[in-house]
Amino acid sequence: MTILLILSINTGSSSIKYTLIEIETEQVLIRGIVENIGAADASMKHCLKGKEEVFHAQYSNHEQSIQAIINTLLDTRHGALKDLSEIFAVGHRIAHGGEDMFQPTVIDESTLAKMRENIRLAPLHMPHMVRGIEIFRKLMPLTPMVAVFDTAFHQTMPPEAYLYAIPYEYYLKYGIRRYGFHGTSHRYVSERVARFLDQPFDQLKIIICHLGNGSSIAAVKNGNSVDTSMGFTPLSGVPMGTRCGDIDVAIVGRIMEYEGLSFPQVEKILTNQSGLLGLSGISNDCREIEIQAINGNARANMAIDVLCYQVKKYIGAYVAAMNGLDCLVFTGGIGENGAMIRERICAGMDYLGIQLNSDKNNVRLEREKDAKLISNEDARVRICIVRTNEELMIGKQTYEAIRNDVMKDDRTMEPDSSDCASF
Prior knowledge:
Elements: E1 5-11, E2 16-22, E3 27-35, E4 43-48, E5 51-56, H1 62-74, E6 87-94, E7 105-106, H2 109-117, H3 126-139, E8 145-149, H4 159-162, H5 168-174, H6 183-197, E9 205-210, E10 216-221, E11 224-228, H7 250-259, H8 263-272, H9 275-280, H10 286-294, H11 298-322, E12 327-331, H12 332-337, H13 339-346, H14 358-361, E13 371-373, E14 382-386, H15 390-412, H16 417-420
Parallel strand pairs: 1-6, 6-8, 9-12, 12-14
Antiparallel strand pairs: 1-2, 2-3, 3-4, 4-5, 7-8, 9-10, 10-11, 13-14
């Protein structure tokens, strides 16, 4: 049997995550990350067969880091490959696909050109992701590359959900609209919870709370995303680790006026110094804030209350948008591990049929399981924890894109004369 290996890549400004997956068995062979690229404390965390090792070297730039990843995958002690040809394809997580890239896409020069155009939509993320693709294509020229777009799953939103009430020409000219993010995670989690509940994916109304340092809520109706909390950028929605979430836009102008700051300076504050960090004054790490809240820190408790209240509001709104709810799902670092957060969010929503079971909620996911039911047995709405797996979804979508591309080529190929001879 042929072993199909997919290398899943997530290139950031100062980090590159990599996962080598045997796609048919969904087994992760290797996972790792190069962190703090270009800094003195740059390192590679590499995990093979459950054993993690840390390497320190001169990871001065993205090209050097990607070459180090490839060398490690081929290393006789730390790797799992004898030759790069064993990799069937490389799947790249891409932050933004705009409106014209909403399917996993085999990368060619045309695809790259479109992604370069979309840099204006995600200027903090897209340049590094495009650069990562260019480097991988240079180092692995014979291996197919696929782009998997983080905005793609939300392209099924209707206009009333994605349009902003601003002059319509700004949408037509500049593409200013709600795009949503975390789409790869929301797609994986919504499909996984349907299998877990043994229910048809295309007949469920699901709300997913992806809560972590970056957080978003999504409404998934009958297999399609119909609304999501992040908007034109990942800054909007519920409060996050360091991002403010939804605010009155006039606040930006007031802060500029009062503090004598430029727009980029205020944007940096709202992106890097706000959210749970700004409210608590402690940390962007919810675990630390929870500890302080338990110990009586009023600001820590307030930060958690603000987060839970905003998530609760989105849940109520999305129940209305979908005219009902079958399943509420928690995922992401906080969603999967924050029992106190989940309990506060679900409190007082009995009228919607949301009834969390405290005993079930206080038990973490077992290592070998990736989903758990935490609602009361007789509750109308099932509440689940699902461990997200964006890398696996990238791998599966990469394989599907290659297969569909091959099938498309086969369908469009003209028959030769020998094929026609028998007719």
